[in-house]
Amino acid sequence: MVAGRTVVDRGKPVVPTSGYTNEPLSGGLIEGVGNTPLLELTEIPGLAPGARLFAKLESVNPGGSIKDRSVSRIIAAAVVAGHFRDGRRLLDSSSGNAGIAYAMFGAAAGIGVTLVIPANASTETRAVAVASI
Predict the structure, then answer these.
(1) If you placed Cys at 104, which of 31, 127, 128, 132 could pair as Cys (CB 3.0 to 4.6 Å)?
(2) How far apart are CA 89 and CA 133, in angstroms?
(3) Are the C-beta atoms of residues 13 and 87 closer than 8 Å to each other?
């Protein structure tokens, strides 16, 4: 506990120091982001005649959140720019889905991740973040 926050940090950075390239992340987990289905909502009281309403099912992303979209792109751009060379890690302060996504995509990409989680974060959020790192 540091100033009302919990630091979640598992192990040493695992970014290889040799053979590391600037290729964007591809395959596996990152391929599962996006292309989420649309669901037409048909039983909406007060919907204007002829109007159609759709919901995007972001819950089918790998982390179950729309945050997977932005975080996967942020990490991919940082890899391309070489920001994780020489054992650099990702540091984020989050108590929600973005932190979980950083932990999940960081682990999948072999990037060390440190999350600073507020003391009032739910037990579920902490458990998912720790399990992802």
Answers:
(1) 132
(2) 12
(3) yes
